[in-house]
Specification:
- Belongs to the NAD(P)-dependent epimerase/dehydratase family.
- By secondary structure, this protein is an alpha/beta fold.
- It has one domain: Rossmann fold.
- Helix content is 38%, strand content 19%.
- It contains eleven helices and 16 strands.
- The chain has a seven-stranded parallel β-sheet, with helices on both faces. A three-stranded antiparallel β-sheet has the order 14-15-16.
- The longest helix is centred in the N-terminal third of the chain and has 22 residues.
- The radius of gyration is 20 Å and the shape is globular.
- Bound molecules: nicotinamide-adenine-dinucleotide.
- Nicotinamide-adenine-dinucleotide binds next to helix 1, helix 5 and strand 5.
Length: 370
């Protein structure tokens, strides 16, 4: 039986490439559709290095209906994981039409192409930004939407569009995954986040300070009403997020209708807690400077994850120490990102080893702990 093919839009990006690893480990064959506007095709070589399978890359725009038709016809796609999109909040404020075009119109064109192809199983990358910033934590899926920027509104609108679609046509099975703060890297150190320019997010920033690429971390506000005064977020390991897509795919393929699920750990960590964990993982001191609060930043939020467990059978398994250790390994193994040569690896070779564990490649689960 050939592996079922899954179209992964945006599959060369940070979460997409890790999702390809998880899909292959679960017995699927990803077909990636990506413009590479914010990613690098060499991420897929790294996926191959880890799993032994290189996803097919279709270099196309998710807003291009004809390209989608050709891709569905050529590859016999059975379901779609839709991650392609733009994600910088500040940029979405400056260029709202660009964000509505890619994120909203792109999702509409994709859903129409899926319908034409008779492919009606969809996992959509949504975000905790749909909740806005005034919800008490833990935030459950039933909390009202209140996005506070164009980026969050594009995600909220796509969710509404997909809910309308699923109510109109019972053949669709859809899962909208609301990620909290995905961080970390694949534990091999071969795959991770590659920010374009100065990172917008905390973990890659800390990692670059630890590596000596940046002088110090500016903490945006240390006078919040939290235990240590710094902002609290629900950081979740990118491989847990990736595995959440596999769980959502199983559910959406089996059960028509639509569901929303938070992907988080259910716990918040403050900026200072993340810094301490990173110092432990890297053995380096992270220089800090306390700056003013950033407008629009919420003091603290984290996910209610009970529904994800109930509906998907998924929960995050990796803790903050592992998120930091894996980020640091990626930083050290690939300081120049994908410009560093892909290590030559043979099946069964030990990909990574420390005192606690070794990881082999090309096992039937992508990697094994021995
Ligand atoms: N990383 C996060 O913190 C986070 C949090 C919540 C939600 N999300 C969502 O998850 C998805 C993936 O995020 P990521 O962090 O991997 O970002 P990313 O930028 O690394 O990945 C997005 C991918 O989409 C591609 N892309 C962009 N526009 C496209 C288009 N018009 N057609 C085809 N491909 C296009 C990019 O080249 C990139 O490979 C996004 O939809 C994002 O909004 C991310």
């Amino acid at each position: 039986m050939p592996a079922p093919r899954i179209l992964v839009t945006g599959g060369a990006g940070f979460i997409g490439s890790h999702t390809c690893v998880a899909l292959i480990a679960a017995g699927y064959q990803p077909v990636v559709l990506d413009t590479l506007v914010n990613s690098d095709a060499r991420s897929l070589k790294r996926v191959a290095c880890i799993t032994g399978v290189e996803p097919v890359l279709v270099r196309a725009d998710v807003r291009d209906g004809a390209a989608l038709d050709r891709t569905f016809a050529a590859h016999g796609v059975q379901a779609v994981v839709h991650l392609a999109g733009l994600k910088a909040v500040g940029e979405s404020v400056a260029d709202p039409l660009g964000y509505y075009d890619v994120n909203l119109a792109g999702s509409l064109v994709l859903a129409r192409a899926m319908d034409r192809a008779g492919v009606r199983t969809l996992v959509f990358s949504s975000s905790a930004t749909v909740y806005g910033d005034s919800q008490p934590s833990p935030i459950a899926e039933a909390a009202p939407h209140g996005p506070v920027n164009p980026y969050g509104r594009t995600k909220s609108m796509v969710e509404s569009m997909l809910a309308d679609l699923s109510h109109a046509d019972a053949r669709w099975g859809i899962a909208c995954l609301r990620y909290f703060n995905p961080v970390g890297a694949h534990e091999s150190g071969l795959l991770g986040e590659l920010p374009n320019g100065p990172p917008n997010n905390l973990m890659p920033y800390i990692s670059q300070v630890a590596a000596g690429e940046r002088e110090c971390l500016v903490v945006h506000g240390a006078d919040y009403d939290t235990a240590d005064g710094t902002g609290v977020r629900d950081y979740v390991h990118v491989m847990d997020v990736a595995e959440g897509h596999v769980a959502a795919l199983h559910r959406a393929a089996r059960r028509p209708g639509i569901l929303m699920a938070n992907l988080g750990t259910g716990h918040g960590a403050s900026v200072l807690e993340v810094v301490s964990a990173f110092e432990r993982a890297s053995g380096r001191r992270i220089a800090l400077r306390i700056g003013p609060r950033r407008p629009g930043d919420a003091p603290a939020y984290w996910a209610d994850v009970r529904s994800a467990w109930r509906t998907l059978g998924w929960r995050a398994r990796r803790d903050l120490d592992q998120m930091c250790a894996d980020s640091w390994r990626w930083q050290c193994a690939s300081p120049h990102g994908f410009d560093d040569p892909v290590p030559t690896l043979v099946p069964g070779a030990v990909l990574f080893q420390n005192k606690d564990r070794a990881i082999n490649i090309h096992s039937n689960r992508g990697h094994t702990h021995v």
